[in-house]
Design goal:
Structural class: alpha+beta
Number of domains: 2
Largest sheet: 14 strands, mixed
Helix content: 25-40%
Order of helices and strands: EEHHHEEEHEHEEEHHEEEHEHEH
Length: 288
């Protein structure tokens, strides 16, 4: 059921509302389930309470969707659909001062009218299923919650992530140890039994042990475990990370789409948003 808020009809006669109607949201997200993987997983009971959803409706049918995930700062935001509808939702309903926004490049100009968008690398969404998966030989062990200390010590050497024991308990993590020390690991960001979808992430090898194929071993083990219950497994990788892309391809992952994932800050005025594309075309000259 559509609830909580409604604005006046905006661009193209769109009505913009909050909604908690999971059936409506799922139907829209399934239009591109691989791109919408995180959002589909967030429809599960465990995650849904942490989310807010705004939709732009043309009649009774959603044309655009914006998801805001609470509890983190800046908040993760996902935008999908018609650019005018995304802009209307971000203008009138979901208005974080700062956020990490995942969006298609077609939506980026609409976001720039409301937010100052920081530069960032192009991202690739890769996906694998049972038909394309090619397991990589090697020994990796399923991790248990009691190993969270070792996992966080490994991640502190890479991307300063910190995880709770529940991340291992609720997800799927595999690691490789050398003489008892955890030197490589891969895991999951989120898993949805209902959507039969999972997102692989937190792949890291200690710098002294890189080049030995450990990332492929751990990612393969995680993927193989997930594909027992999931129809699709996806991951994100930077477009400029050629070694990682090649490694994932050897496991059967294929490129689904390229998208922007950027840190954004709310603009102070409408004029600031109007000037954004002009600044992009004519950047300020640097003094010699």
């Amino acid at each position: 059921m559509v609830t909580l808020a409604r604005t006046e009809a905006g661009e193209r006669g769109l009505a913009v509302r909050f909604t908690t109607d999971r059936a409506l949201l799922r139907q829209f997200l399934e239009r591109d389930r691989l791109f919408a993987a995180y959002a589909l997983c967030d429809l599960d009971d465990r995650e849904f309470a942490r989310t807010r959803w705004g939709v732009a409706l043309g009649g009774q049918a959603p044309q655009s969707l914006v998801l805001e995930y609470a509890g983190l700062a800046p908040q993760p935001v996902f935008a999908m659909g018609d650019a005018a509808g995304v802009e209307a939702v971000l203008r009138d309903l979901i208005r974080p001062r700062a956020a990490w926004v995942a969006m298609s490049y077609a939506v980026l100009p609409a976001v720039e009218r409301l937010y100052r968008v920081e530069p960032g690398p192009e991202m690739i969404r890769m996906a694998v299923d049972r038909a394309t998966f090619r397991p990589h030989p090697g020994l990796a062990a399923r991790m248990v919650p009691g190993e969270i200390g070792d996992l966080n010590r490994l991640y502190e050497l890479g991307f300063t992530s910190w995880l709770s024991a529940s991340a291992i308990e609720e997800g799927v993590y595999y690691g490789v140890r050398v003489r008892g020390t955890l030197v490589a690991a891969a895991g999951t960001h989120v898993v949805s039994r209902e959507a039969r979808m999972a997102v692989v992430g937190n792949v890291l090898t200690h710098r002294e042990y890189r080049g030995r194929g450990f990332a492929k071993v751990t990612t393969s083990a995680v993927t193989q475990e997930l594909l027992r219950t999931c129809d699709d497994v996806v991951l994100n990788v930077r477009a400029d990370n050629a070694p990682a892309i090649a490694a994932y391809r050897t496991l059967g992952y294929r490129e689904h789409c390229r998208f922007a994932e950027r840190l954004v800050h709310r603009r102070a005025s409408t004029l600031d948003g109007i000037m954004a594309p002009i600044r992009r075309l004519f950047p300020a000259r640097k003094e010699p």
